[in-house]
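Possible regression after last week's pipeline update?

I re-ran a chain I had predicted before the update to compare outputs. Posting the input and the new output here so someone can diff against the archived version. Not blocking, just want to make sure nothing changed silently.
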Amino acid sequence: MFDKILIANRGEIACRVIETARRLGVQTVAVYSDADAHSKHVALADQAVHIGPPAVNESYLLGDRIIAAALKTGAQAIHPGYGFLSENPDFVDAVVAAGLKFIGPSADAIRAMGLKDAAKNLMQKSGVPVVPGYHGESQDLELLQSEAEKIGYPVLIKARAGGGGKGMRLVENAADFSAALDSAQREASASFGDPICMVEKYITSPRHIEIQVFGDEHGNVIHLFERDCSLQRRHQKVIEEAPAPDMPADVRAAMGQAAIDAAKAVNYVGAGTVEFIVDGGDGLRTDGFWFMEMNTRLQVEHPVSEAITGLDFVELQLRVAAGEELPVKQDDLRINGWSFEARVYAEDVPKGFLPSTGTLHHLQFPTGSQFALGSTRIDSGVRMGDAISPYYDPMIAKVIVHGPTRAAALGQLRAALADTHIAGSVTNIGFLSALAAHDGVGAGQVDTGLIARDIDALTDMGTAPAELIGFAAVASLGLLDGAQSHDPFAAKSGFRAWGVANPVAILLMGDDTLQCHVEILGHDQFKITQGDVESRLHIQAGQNGDFTLLHDGVTSIVSLYQGDNAISVFANAQTLHFTRPDPLLGSSDAADGGDGIIAPMPGLVKLLNAHAGQSVSKGDVLIMLEAMKMEHSLTAPRDGIIAEVLTDVGDQVLDGAMLLQLEPVDI
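New output (post-update):
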């Protein structure tokens, strides 16, 4: 076993590798950019080396600096994690040339599987089924349109490099093909430095099922069963599970063997995942799955496979890289229980899942123990007080559960999400909770189109309950026993020599201003009136900072976070965020985007279709903003004439920045 390894990554996966290395007695070296100087993975590692500014192309993508850091600190091997340089064969060659061990497959294996077109041609020769499509290099528009016509719409345009849904577009008719190809090529070029795209038949009832494989340097290759990753939004995985629901034994065996054949075709060593697109329209069949791609690294969703096999995949990676044989054979492996993983992101769901930033002022996860049946596990790269950076993926944590049955594990996932409390940044927890409670998900009727079909219901958080608004109002006035309050006299704020206290709380919730009249009826008892809605609450402080809320005969457990001007209420799998308005600031017309385009998140201006004096119609795409390597279209808010363009291609803009203004409308 190695004495010391360097982890060429950041965030959650770096922390995950450090955890296993520490258990095995292996020292770790972290690398970090300016933005990550005080991050969790730096604090956990035995040593840390600064490698550059926040931008990934000036830090985490600079292989020479990472190799120099490994040599400087005496590391013997480099673990790439996922993303960044994990599937860069030139980096692997450089690592080996420096006399270090790369904890992963060979550069030749990565090259063979790195470009989807070449990989599919290789799979066909190896007897692995592939999706019908055009996998050539030509990017001639007429040729690609002709191939799409031959395949038959709908088709999927896919970048041949990379993954994660980047550079991928679904095209349902010929009229949309050219624009979709342009967008996919731009995104592919920005994400992977390679604009070349393929065109494939789109399976209309698709499921995304992948097989985990492991190989060693002694020629042994095994599969560790399947994961179903069908719950996706815009080709980005949201909730994964293992094993796949309704998986017949013969199909599992056929897919497992196909994955082993794929790995053996490139002499694969280490952890890898063979991804298949599966036709779920008429049940899973041995002739209804096709090779999509192979990820030559550890997957984000690997914990669900760890849970059902009881194996630590990072440990297996280290042992295989150190020259050991795999400690298990195929016949030794059994599926034990069921596991789900939900990806918690800092993203604004009502605004179309836009990436968000902010400081995590409050961070509370459910507790659990790794690999134990019936457990909850949290893999996270952040701590309370950390900031979500605009430079990197906005993942906060992965919530992983393991239970004896699918129903039990899904129930645990719902409970774990309800117990995940985050304040300081908006998150997708409400969306994840709605998805985990979806009837189709509960029945195992999952496919890659489920979220898109039901997106309105899944993102509709409904009207905020009056009792929770009332609770927030009481809290904002400092009237809760045991609540966090900056007012030393808050405990006596309800005292009156005569009469009834009736203070007013003003709260902002999104774009709404709420005015709540709070009448103190007695100790822990309040009447809150908001407009024509009246709520009577009995609130008692409980253990661990929670409160028991009695309203209309129903008791709820409510948690609370209060900052300087922010209040977050957590109850019944809901999170409500409020702010107290500053009465000295008043209102500002500049914040109104009706006459302009405001950046909805930090990002890079990739495309500008606007100039002063130009006439535009409402909905015209004027600016393309790239955030987290995904493109977001910004459109004209109304018909009008552009008065001023305040940005340019290549600008890095901040959240809330005014990018374009229209001439005012004469009244």
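Follow-up from reviewer: compared with the archived run. The mean pLDDT is 90. Marking as no regression found.
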